[in-house]
Each structure stands twice: as structure tokens, then as C-alpha cells.
Design brief:
The chain has 356 residues and is an alpha+beta fold. It folds into two domains: 12-231, 3-Layer(aba) Sandwich (Aminopeptidase), CATH 3.40.630; 252-322, Beta Barrel (OB fold (Dihydrolipoamide Acetyltransferase, E2P)), CATH 2.40.50.100. The chain is built from seven helices and 19 strands. It has helices at residues 68-78, 97-102, 125-136, 167-176, 191-197, 215-231, 326-340; strands at residues 12-14, 17-19, 23-31, 40-48, 51-60, 86-92, 143-148, 154-162, 180-183, 202-208, 248-250, 252-257, 262-266, 273-274, 279-284, 291-295, 300-306, 310-311, 316-322. The strands form three sheets. Strands 3, 4, 5, 6, 7, 8, 9, 10, 11, 12, 14, 17 and 19 form a 13-stranded mixed sheet that branches. Strands 16-15-13-18 form a four-stranded antiparallel sheet, with no helix packed on it. Strands 1-2 form a two-stranded antiparallel sheet. Helix 1 crosses helix 6 (215-231) and helix 4 packs across helix 6. It is globular. Bound molecules: zinc ion. Zinc ion binds at residues 63, 66, 148.
């Protein structure tokens, strides 16, 4: 894994602002003004370490209602270990500033920022923002991590998604340490596709649900990024090797949908191993008179689920990942839950005090 920015001239210039080795600063990249006359900017925190190494970018809240990643970035920047950084870190805690303000996934032009890459300097807001992030941040990095959660009312088991045909992505995905890794195709217009086309290995981390903080998801994210940074030589190696989880890879997933409209009683947890034909939930009427089973269409592990107990016929209820050996996948998830058992208590709210 060779960094492309390990040259003599290690000055980083973002939005016309220079950050020399040994400096760190927050840069406000101007984006389209609000129609109230107020200025709006995309804040980027840049740490350019004195010692050379690769440049890693981290983006969170590219979907404006996905909050776990925002907390992951805050905690990461507060780690004392960051003082020992090699290379450079480009951190965007809130990529979709508009969506974040409005607490929505999308932008005011109703576009999805993660389908708007590479964007255009003179396009709509989504196109401009994608262009800015792509050219000022992504294109200047050697590696990237993009932080997501499930959509509104959907929660995801901590998982890494990436194009595993790229051996660097595979290696970094395994380093991150989520129980499950999904080999997922690139989506048109996504940040991941933009990075892949430029030869920048990128991991997509998914955990928890929109508009909520999930302590396990946040800690798993911070821990995973630290592991990846150690692997890249950006942070000093650990004195003692912590017991690492052996993640399992899934190459296909499917959604189990509601067979009819009604009120949903779920019978399975996130991370549970299910068999083909197993009843995952029942959908019934408001009088308790009828019940229809929701049966799994495959064997696998529940990696995502709807948190809303109401469904229309055809609504996606459970996201099941299929594995060559579901038993091994189940063990990986169990080991993960054991590691995090003590973390299910609400954690400290002050990011400065936490040691994930
Ligand atoms: Zn997302």
C-alpha cells in the first residue's frame, strides 16, 4: 500500500488554503449561500502531520440524517493518539450540510448526494457539493472511509461494504473488524464509485439507524478506523495485539418483505442466524384477529431490519446476508456481541472523555 502523497512537498492545499506539515486547521469550503443571505460552508478538519505517511479522508453524514458517523469523527479527532499521526487526515463530519440542518437524507433539490458524483461546478446544489467533495477532498487522498447508518426506521448491524475484488479494499475491510463484510457492487454516482475510478481504496461503514446515536456502532466505527490507520502506518502499532475478530464475507443479500399490510410483530434480532422458511415476524390487523407469517426466503444472518412496527404489503422488513457457512457467520456475530456486551450501557456523552 504505497501512498501517493509521500513526497518532499507535503503541503496540502484545500479550497486555496495551505496546510503545511505540522499544522492542523478547520477549513470552511464555501457552498451555495442560503436564500436568507446567510453563508453556508462545508467544514473540513485537516491534520497534516510532521511525519510523512498516507492521506486518509473520512466523510460522515453524506446522508444528512445519518448521525453515528458524526460522533465517530468527533471522537477520532479527540483521541490523544492522533498527536502521533503520520501522513494526513482529512475529516468531514457533516458532508451533507443542508440535509443535516433539515434532518433529512437528501438535499433541498431532493437529490441524493451519494448518487451525485462526480458532480459539476455549475450544476444543482447536489452536483456542486459532490464536485467540491470529490475534487477538494477525495482526489487529494490515498484512502477513504465513508460513514453511514441505516435509513430512517431501519437499523443495520455494523458492517463494511466494499468492492472486495480490490485486494487493498479486502485487506482494509478485514482490518476494520466488523463481524460481517459485504462484497457490494459500486452504485452509479456514489462517492465509492468516484473513489474507485480514481484508484482510491474506500471502505463504507454502515451501522445503526438514522437520527440516533448507537453506542456500539460508534465505538465499533472508532475502533475500526484506528485499526485501519495502524495498518496504513498512520498510527503507532499497538504494544499488545488485541484479539481480532475474524470477519466473514457475504457476496449476496436479500430483503424479506411484508406479505400483506398490517401491524408487525418481529420475532428476530439483528445479527440473528435464520433458516430458509423461518418465521421472522407476523403481520396482523389492528383487532388482533388475523396474523400472517413473514417467512425468510433464505438462510443467513439478519444484517438490517425495519424498526417500524407498521408495514404496507411489499415493504422491506429484514435484510438477510447469505454466507457459504452461516454457522461460522453466526459465531462471528456472537463473538462481536460478546466483545461489546459491556458497551450496551449508554456511554459518555462527552467525546473528549471517551476512550473507545
Ligand atoms: Zn447512508
Amino acid at each position: 500500500m504505497v501512498a501517493k502523497t509521500t513526497g518532499n512537498d507535503r503541503r496540502i492545499v484545500i479550497g486555496g488554503v495551505a496546510v503545511d506539515p505540522g499544522e492542523s486547521r478547520t477549513i470552511d469550503l464555501p457552498i451555495a449561500d442560503l436564500y436568507t443571505h446567510a453563508k453556508l460552508a462545508l467544514p473540513v478538519h485537516v491534520i497534516n502531520a510532521r511525519r510523512p505517511g498516507p492521506t486518509l479522508f473520512i466523510t460522515a453524514a453524506i446522508h444528512g440524517d445519518e448521525l453515528n458517523g458524526v460522533n465517530i469523527v468527533r471522537r477520532l479527532l479527540n483521541l490523544s493518539e492522533i498527536r502521533k499521526l503520520r501522513g494526513a487526515l482529512l475529516a468531514i463530519p457533516i458532508a451533507n450540510v443542508f440535509g443535516f440542518i433539515h434532518r433529512t437524507r437528501y438535499l433541498p433539490d431532493r437529490r441524493d448526494l451519494n448518487r451525485s458524483f462526480p458532480g459539476r461546478e455549475t450544476g444543482s446544489i447536489a452536483a456542486r457539493l459532490a464536485h467540491l467533495i470529490g475534487n477538494e477532498i477525495v482526489a487529494k487522498a490515498d484512502f477513504g472511509i465513508d460513514l453511514h447508518t441505516g435509513a430512517a426506521d431501519r437499523e443495520n448491524l455494523p458492517q463494511i461494504r466494499g468492492d472486495l475484488s480490490d485486494p487493498t479494499v479486502l485487506e482494509l475491510a478485514q482490518t476494520f473488524g466488523t463481524p460481517v463484510i459485504l462484497d457490494s457492487r459500486l452504485r452509479d454516482g456514489s462517492l465509492r464509485e468516484f473513489a474507485a475510478e480514481r484508484g482510491i481504496p474506500l471502505l463504507l461503514y454502515e451501522a445503526g439507524e438514522a437520527m440516533r446515536f448507537d453506542e456500539v456502532a460508534i465505538r465499533t466505527g472508532v475502533r475500526g478506523i484506528r485499526r485501519v490507520m495502524r495498518k496504513l502506518g498512520m498510527l503507532p502499532p499497538r504494544k499488545q495485539n488485541s484479539r481480532t475478530l475474524e470477519p466473514v464475507i457475504s457476496r449476496s443479500t436479500t430483503w424479506v418483505r411484508a406479505p400483506c399490510s398490517g401491524i408487525v410483530d418481529a420475532h428476530c434480532r439483528l445479527g440473528e442466524r435464520v433458516t430458509d422458511g423461518q418465521t421472522l415476524a407476523t403481520v396482523g390487523d389492528p383487532f388482533g384477529a388475523t396474523r400472517t407469517d413473514v417467512k425468510s426466503t433464505t438462510a443467513g444472518i439478519v444484517i438490517g431490519r425495519s424498526r417500524l412496527p407498521l408495514a404496507y404489503e411489499g415493504d422491506a422488513l429484514f435484510h438477510i446476508a447469505m454466507f457459504k457457512n452461516s454457522k461460522i457467520a453466526e459465531e462471528a456475530v456472537e463473538q462481536f456481541h460478546k466483545t461489546h456486551e459491556t458497551l450496551y450501557d449508554p456511554g459518555p456523552t462527552d467525546p473528549g472523555r471517551s476512550t473507545p
